Amino acid sequence: MRMLHEQILAKVAGERERIISRRGLMTGSAKVAAGGTLALALGGGALKVRSASAQTDEKDDFFEDDIAVLNYALTLEHLEYSFYRDGIGQFTFGNDPFGQSIDTNLAAIRDHEGAHVDVLTQVITDLGGEPVEEATYDFGYTDAASFLATAAALENTGVSAYDGAGASIENPDLLTAAGTIVAVEARHASYLNLVTGEIPFPAAFETALTPDEVLEIAGPFIVS
Asked: Is 36 exposed, middle or buried (0-12, 13-18, 19+ CB in 10 A)?
């Protein structure tokens, strides 16, 4: 629903006011590659247990129904797909620690994200909803290292976003479908953690993030 998308973009606009400069954003991305605070926030937290009432409040605030949850997921998938689609080819990444081509694997991740966009768009349409459209983004990367750092940040955030929103899905079939997507996102995150020097599996439990927490991380990338 457009209402959710507009709410997300409004929150994003507020987040951008807190960014002092584009240099500050790029510095934050560089810290991920170096094992800084953003990487810890995305990948290494403890399991967050929320009460039933807190989950209900979150659903009331953001998710009117399953279509709203799916559009939330689609907003994040648009973000990820456009990142890879527009960024791959600008740098040469060489091989990963296993001797495989990082460029080839990034292209595979891009194709996965594109498939997620297509499937979510179709499901939302089939359910009688209106899929949200792709926004305009500024990811702030300047070289291969900051590109990979941003990729890792996006993938780790995507996993935590799906985990946080899963409890709001009412249709069991949709919950199963979302699980098949988040599992692949987790594989992406593990691989990108590895190539950026982070632990591929940093904790026994994933950190589930609320929509507000996801927006605080992903919001600065969305321009309009």
From this structure: middle
Bridge-partner residues for 222, per DSSP?
137
Chain center to CA of 155: 5
Three-state SS string over 110-144 comes to: HHHHHHHHHHHHHHHHHCCCCCCCCCCECCCCCCH
Q: For 112-128, how does the pLDDT look when each residue is reduced to its tens digit (9 = 90+)?
A: 999 999 999 999 999 99
φ, ψ (nearest 5 deg) of residue 137: -125, 155
- pTM check: above 0.90: no
- The label of the residue with tokens 């927490």 reads 213
Phi, psi dihedrals of residue 74, rounded to the nearest 5°: -65, -35
Q: How many angstroms separate the CA atoms of 9 and 205, rounded?
A: 30
SS3 222: strand
* CA atoms of 151 and 146, how far apart (whole Å): 8
Burial class of 183 by CB neighbour count within 10 A (0 to 12, 13 to 18, 19+): exposed
Backbone region of residue 132 per phi and psi (left: phi > 0; alpha: psi in -120 to 50; beta: other values): beta
Name the residue ranges covered by the structural domains of the chain.
2-221
- CATH 3.30.1240.10 assigned to domain 2-221? The reply is no
| pLDDT tens by residue, 165-178 | 999 999 999 999 99
SS3 call for 101: strand
